[in-house]
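FORM 12-B: Structure-to-Sequence Request
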């Protein structure tokens, strides 16, 4: 067995990246109804579809659950959604293009992660860390229509080219340009991914790098950060104010976030020891941390120290939201994977390294297989559009009893409101909806586990939903 895994093919990280890519292609065309965060995906697919059907202006992303309003609102820069739109313009709209785009970019992110680590650590550490990252929380989220692994991958690619800029004498301006492009796009796509910029301190304080290179780098960094600052701190608030719909979470005061983190410390820590790498992977992270101190590996300790300090700011700004959503840990996972990979490399016997990696891969992937399954009680959502088409037009506004989950609105292919059962039971609330142009109320029987009787005429009543005329 040992000699089998010693074959050159299995030592090539590209083989594993391609293998994991193919594994995650399973069910790639599934509707976004996975167990975890399907609401987050359908919010994005709405934006893509609206680029195609309403307006392709990337500065004005639109969602479908803003009621009678335009749906234009502030959000993350919709880079992933816009690439999805470009592909849809060529091949026709399909939601799963977003999955595939994320998977492709995230796979390249692993490749550049490996190449970057190999410059500063042993090839064994780089290989181990890359395998661990493949089996980490990235395994599931790199095939979701979400920008988290997508954006972090772009920032990692940008970091690789920055390293080439500082350390290689050839293609200096090309490397600087590629750093700027990938870093700008990555941070625009997901602001928290920008915390990795703190690690450029290793280049800035390196006395062997010329002042000229550092000065040019500072200027270019300022140029690429300007549009990021404009989008998130000027344009997003403007869209929210002008179009009167708040959707995007921009954080809260650190004092409040710190209080919420302390109150929910158990859930927050669980992201590190469970969601990120799972238990064995986290165990090797602790081993790597221990030996980094013992062997006084200043580079790794510096990466951990600076990285954690910068990431802590994100956690403090997010507060309860950080503890509640596992995907917030994604930008920090590459640093954890590096530390765990270093810990595994401490073991000199290849058989031990392979055994640990094998356990990490099995634990990581098997514990995420549920994300390849769809929520059985939500499968009927895919038929909601055709059901409504039988008696209503796409321009009709609807209300759905999914509280704050917009998934059913997306599958209905209509605009409208999401509301709770208590709200929809209120005659005054329903009258307010009617005055704003709502035509139908959709009660999903299986979503919340039961029917909801309203004193209104019914358009449809079946096992999955009852649709009332308002």
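FORM 12-B RESPONSE
SEQUENCE OUT:
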């Amino acid at each position: 067995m040992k000699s089998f895994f010693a074959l050159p093919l299995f030592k090539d990280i590209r083989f594993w990246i391609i293998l994991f890519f193919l594994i995650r292609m399973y069910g790639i065309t599934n509707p976004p109804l996975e167990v975890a965060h399907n609401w987050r995906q359908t919010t994005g697919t709405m934006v893509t579809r609206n680029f195609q059907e309403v307006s392709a202006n990337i500065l004005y992303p639109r969602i479908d659950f803003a009621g009678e309003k335009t749906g234009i609102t502030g959000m993350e820069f919709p880079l992933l959604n816009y690439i999805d739109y470009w592909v849809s313009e060529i091949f026709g709209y399909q939601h799963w293009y977003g999955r595939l785009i994320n998977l492709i970019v995230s796979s390249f992110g692993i490749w550049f992660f490996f190449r970057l680590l190999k410059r500063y650590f042993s090839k064994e550490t780089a290989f181990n860390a890359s395998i661990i990252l493949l089996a980490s929380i990235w395994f599931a989220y790199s095939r979701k229509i979400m920008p988290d692994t997508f954006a972090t991958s772009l920032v990692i690619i940008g970091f690789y080219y920055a390293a080439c800029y500082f350390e290689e004498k050839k293609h200096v301006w090309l490397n600087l340009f590629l750093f700027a492009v990938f870093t700008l796009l990555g941070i625009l796509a997901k602001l928290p991914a920008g915390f990795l910029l703190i690690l450029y301190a290793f280049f800035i304080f390196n006395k062997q790098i010329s002042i000229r290179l550092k000065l040019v780098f500072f200027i270019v960094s300022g140029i690429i950060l300007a549009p990021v600052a404009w989008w998130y701190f000027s344009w997003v608030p403007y869209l929210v104010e002008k179009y009167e719909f708040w959707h995007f979470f921009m954080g809260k005061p650190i004092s409040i976030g710190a209080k919420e983190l302390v109150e929910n410390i158990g859930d927050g820590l669980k992201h590190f020891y469970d969601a990120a790498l799972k238990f064995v992977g986290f165990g090797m992270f602790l081993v790597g941390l221990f030996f980094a101190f013992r062997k006084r590996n200043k580079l790794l300790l510096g990466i951990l120290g600076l990285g954690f300090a910068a990431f802590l700011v994100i956690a403090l700004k997010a507060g309860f939201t950080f503890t509640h959503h596992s995907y917030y840990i994604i930008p920090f996972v590459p640093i954890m994977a590096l530390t765990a990979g270093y810990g595994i490399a401490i073991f000199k016997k290849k058989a031990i390294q392979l055994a640990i990696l094998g356990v990490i891969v099995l634990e990581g992937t098997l514990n995420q297989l549920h994300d390849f399954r769809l929520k059985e009680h939500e499968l009927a959502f895919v038929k909601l559009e055709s059901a409504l088409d039988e008696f209503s037009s796409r321009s009709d506004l609807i209300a759905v009893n999914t509280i704050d989950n917009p998934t059913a609105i997306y599958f209905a292919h209509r605009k409208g409101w999401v509301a709770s059962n208590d709200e929809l039971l209120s005659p005054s609330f329903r009258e307010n909806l009617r005055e704003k142009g709502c035509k139908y109320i959709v009660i999903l029987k299986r979503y919340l586990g039961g029917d909801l009787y309203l004193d209104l005429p019914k358009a449809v009543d079946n096992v999955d939903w009852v649709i009332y005329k308002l």
